[in-house]
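Hi R.,

As promised, here are both runs. First protein below:
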Amino acid sequence: MSRRKLEVDVLALQPYYVQAEIYELGKTTDDFNGVTLSVYDRERTICDCFKCRSRLDNELFSKALNAYADDTKKNLQNLSIYAKRLRVHKKVTELMEVLLNG
C-alpha cells in the first residue's frame, strides 16, 4: 500500500512497515469478542519489542519481557527462530537467559 494512502489523522495509530519476507513470521489469528483478527504470536511480539526498543518505554519493555518469562505457554524454540530471522538473537538470548535463570 502506498504510504500516502495512510495519512489519516482520525486514527491515533502509527503505521510501521515490515519487509515482505518477514511479514508472515509468527502471524496467527485469534477471536476477540466474536471478531477474528490477524495478530502476531507471543514470540514475534517479544522480538518486535527488541527491534523497537528505542521507541518503547523502559517500563513497558520490562513488563513485556517479565510477562513472557512467566508465561506457561511460551515457546523458546520459536523465539530463537524468530530472533534469528529478525536479527535480534544476541540481545534476546542475553536478556532471556538472565530472566529465565535468575
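And here is the second one, sequence first, then its C-alpha cells:
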Amino acid sequence: MLEIAMVSAGEERFPASCISRIREVAIINCRRCNTPDELVEFAGNADIIWMFGANVAVKPEALAKLPECRAVLRSGSGLDALPLEFCKANNIQVFNTPESISESVAEHAVSMLFALARNLVQFDRQVRQGQWDSSGNQTKWHLSGRTLGVVGYGRIARTVEKLVSGFNMRVLHFDPWSENSTPLDILLKESDFVSLHCPLTDDTRNLMDDDKFSIMKKDALLVNTSRGEVIDEAALYRALTTGHLGGAALDVLCDEPPLPDNPLLNCEKVIFSPHAAAFSADFEKNFWYYSAEKLVEICGRLEG
C-alpha cells in the first residue's frame, strides 16, 4: 500500500471517519513536523505528503530527500506556500481541496461586501456610543442594479456570483484562464464593487497598486478574501485616505496578525476579519471529508 505522511498535526486532530477512510487505501502516519529535518526523519518513505495551514516544513530541501514522494496535498485552497517550481521540476504532483471551503469563503466575501455597502459596522459603533441617527446620509451605496467585479474566477468567485444573483447585480470577472474574461482595467473602471479571489503568484503579488486603484470608480468598495499580498497595502491606504475609494473589507493582510503600526488599522473606512472566511459550522465536516476523498483519488492515480 502507498504511504501517506500527514505533517501538520497528530492523528488526534482528525475525525476518526477521515482517518478510517484513508486507511482503506493507504498507510497513514500523522505528526506535526516543525522543520524540514523533522519532516525528512518522519516521512522518509512517504509516497504522499499531506498538510494544512501554514507551511513550516514542506520545503525543497526536505522534498529532495524523500525519494518515494510523488504527490503533495495541501487541504484548503491556497498553494502559494508550497515549492511549486521544485515540485514541477521533480515530477511531484500538487493537489488542494478548494471545494471544501468555497461556499464558506464566498458567503464571507458577500457578507463583508454587504456590511461595507450598508455601513453596518459603523452604525453599530454609533448606536453603542449613544448616537441614534437613522437619516441614512452616511450610506452612499445601493446593491441592486450595480456592478460587481470579481478578480479570479475559480470556485469561490463563481459561488459569489451565484449568491449575488438575487440582488440584480451585473457581474464581471477577470481571469486569464477563463472564457469571456473582462480585461482587468475595464473591470476596475466599470465596477462599483470589486472582490478579489485570485491565487497569490508572481503575477498577482501587489496586483492592486496605485495605478489599479486610480482606475476604480470614486467611492468604489474593495473586498479581499484571497491573500493579503495581492494588495499593495500602502497604495490602498493612500486610495482610502485621499477619498478616492469608499471602503475596503479585508479578511487577509500582508502580515498576519497585522503589525501594530499598520495604518489601515486606524482607517475607519476599513473593516477586518482575522483570516476567518473559510470557517463555518460545517468547516470540520467539509474540510476533512474532502481531504480524505482527495487522498483516495490521489492514491488511485498513483497506483493506476
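A quick note on the second one: The first strand starts at residue 2 and ends at 6. Let me know what you think.

Best,
J.
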